[in-house]
Inverse folding.
């Protein structure tokens, strides 16, 4: 089913819960981190801006508008510029004392998108939807949700595509993959057809030209692979529900993911239960994640 802003709140009020790959992955990493982020909606007030996320999000916006305007380059670039304005990475000072050009700049964003437009303009597949917020019931009372970047149709059937703007294009696995298998399930349910996937990689590098870093990786899953994923997804979502019913969210001590402190480490380091609420009030704001809000 197609979803829109407000759907998640309505489901929660009815006692029905919806999970996306990020929230499930967060729970698998650390149930207590999941609790703070997805049950309480906590975000750090002092969080540093993520230039890579803003860059990728603006790239998504540019590609969305490009497809919706029948591949109008100017419209795509303008949409990306509007989205990225105010979010550029500032220059850095190197060890030599000289100013270093930032990676996530407006000029580089436009260069990357222009290279993408030129390389893939001749793609003849029919685009059905872009940036589509969807959800499907996994088992009674539990939904899987997501925002699919693009759904297309060709002579072999339906294809869903996911854009990745990344410095690490060789780090993505399509099997096993919680995100891509979830999207295959949702897209198949939505269209009523067998589907294939495509990982649309937009590499980020200062040493290579943008056109060198554009790659499309096709993939598809058979019935055994989908069944294996489904059983795992059911297990993990039921574990989340068990924690919710018990009101107990155990720590797993993954306190430095990617060599950065977890945003919720101060709460786990509290020496007294009575300190947690004052820490939440002083250090965090409430912002429930909702993929169906308009960007």
């Amino acid at each position: 089913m197609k979803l829109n802003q407000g759907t998640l709140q309505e489901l929660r009020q009815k006692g029905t819960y919806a999970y996306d790959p990020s929230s499930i992955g967060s729970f698998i990493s650390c149930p207590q981190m999941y609790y703070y982020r997805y049950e309480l909606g906590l975000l750090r007030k002092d969080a540093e801006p993520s230039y890579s996320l803003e860059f990728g999000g603006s790239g998504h916006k540019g590609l969305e508008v490009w497809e919706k305007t029948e591949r109008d380059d100017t419209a795509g670039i303008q949409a990306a510029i509007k989205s990225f304005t105010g979010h550029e990475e500032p220059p850095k000072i190197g060890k030599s004392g000289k100013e270093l050009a930032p990676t996530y700049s407006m000029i580089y964003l436009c260069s990357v998108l222009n290279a993408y437009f030129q390389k893939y303009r001749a793609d003849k597949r029919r685009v059905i939807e872009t940036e589509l917020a969807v959800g499907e019931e996994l088992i009674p009372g539990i939904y899987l949700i997501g925002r699919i970047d693009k759904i297309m149709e060709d002579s072999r059937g339906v294809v869903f595509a996911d854009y990745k703007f990344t410095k690490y294009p060789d780090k993505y696995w399509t099997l096993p993959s919680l995100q891509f298998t979830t999207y295959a399930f949702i897209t198949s349910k939505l269209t009523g057809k067998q589907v294939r996937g495509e990982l649309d990689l937009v590499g980020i590098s200062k040493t290579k030209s943008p056109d060198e870093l554009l790659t499309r990786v096709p993939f598809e899953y058979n019935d055994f692979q989908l069944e294996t994923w489904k059983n795992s997804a059911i297990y993990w979502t039921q574990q989340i529900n068990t924690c919710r019913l018990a009101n107990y969210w155990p720590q797993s001590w993954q306190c430095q993911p990617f060599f950065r402190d977890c945003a919720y480490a101060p709460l786990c380091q509290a020496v007294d239960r009575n300190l947690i609420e004052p820490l939440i009030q002083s250090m965090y704001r409430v912002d429930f994640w909702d993929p169906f809000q308009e960007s």
Summary: The mean pLDDT is 91. The domain at 1-45+126-295 is CATH 3.90.320 (Lambda Exonuclease; Chain A). The longest strand covers residues 126-139. The chain has two domains: 1-45+126-295, 48-122.
